[in-house]
Automatic annotation (TrEMBL):
One of its GO terms (molecular function) is metal ion binding. Its cofactor is Mg(2+). Residues 22-197 form the EngB-type G domain. Keywords: Cell cycle, Cell division, GTP-binding, Magnesium, Metal-binding, Nucleotide-binding, Septation. The chain holds residues 44 to 240 of 245 of the full protein. Necessary for normal cell division and for the maintenance of normal septation. Belongs to the TRAFAC class TrmE-Era-EngA-EngB-Septin-like GTPase superfamily. EngB GTPase family. GO terms for biological process: division septum assembly. It comes from the Bacteria. GO terms for cellular component: cytosol. This is Probable GTP-binding protein EngB. The gene is engB.
């Protein structure tokens, strides 16, 4: 699947502009700067297909990427970005949460958590929302190259406990790093199972 050509094909600023819901979709959600766009690039083997940035608030739309017409990856704006103007922030976040709740073709949400940062109230809110909407999600610990091994191990245990507390959460937590490539092969295999044949 990931050997197929991956291309950007759509950007939506509003819910009434979404592409036809005609194939399985995987959404990448999480705090601003957690590494959503970077993870899409790592999975698809591109350097800058999804635009990543050290500045939080980089992704402001829903960006759709096609993988061989079998699976769509959706790069979402992040939440929890304090510096954006309030109205702008509410627009992106409203778009993100409405999409997560209402998209019929959404097969799984990858909810990314930064392994260097404490889990915040808005991460827990996002899990609650997915749980209530019964949208299957999987927790991914990003930037696993950064913490010291014992810190990372403790974080993993904590995140696995969170997964067990949410009915819609996949029990397995995936650790990734776009620096070392950790978890990328594993995540590709997971996503390939959700693609059209
Ligand atoms: P928004 O679009 O603002 O919501 O952010 P995002 O979640 O798309 O984050 P993005 O991919 O733009 O990455 C944010 C920053 O984190 C960039 O400076 C990346 O280089 C860095 N980053 C992403 N993944 C990793 C990783 O695995 N390891 C390390 N060390 N840095 C990473
Ligand atoms: Mg982004």
């Amino acid at each position: 699947l990931f050997a197929a050509e991956c291309r950007f094909f759509y950007a939506a600023q509003r819910l009434d502009q979404l592409p036809e819901p005609d194939r399985p979709e995987i959404a990448f959600a999480g705090r601003s700067n957690v590494g959503k766009s970077t993870l899409i690039n790592a999975l698809t083997g591109h350097k800058a297909l999804a635009r990543a940035s050290s500045q939080p608030g980089r992704t402001k739309q829903l960006n759709f990427f096609d993988l061989g017409q079998r699976l769509t990856l959706v790069d979402m704006p992040g939440y929890g970005y304090a510096e954006a103007a309030k109205a702008v922030k509410e627009d992106w976040q409203g778009l993100m949460f409405d999409f997560l709740r209402g998209r019929p073709t959404l097969r799984r949400v990858l909810l990314l958590l930064d392994s260097r940062i404490e889990i915040k109230a808005n991460d827990l809110e996002a899990m609650k929302l997915l749980d209530r909407a019964a949208v299957s999600f999987q927790l991914v610990l990003t930037k696993s190259d950064a913490p010291k091994p014992p810190v990372l191990a403790a974080k993993r245990v904590a995140v696995e406990a969170l997964a067990r507390k949410h009915a819609a959460a996949h029990p397995e937590v995936i650790l990734t790093s776009s620096e070392t490539g950790l978890g990328i092969t594993e995540l590709r295999a997971t996503l390939a199972e959700l693609a059209l044949p």
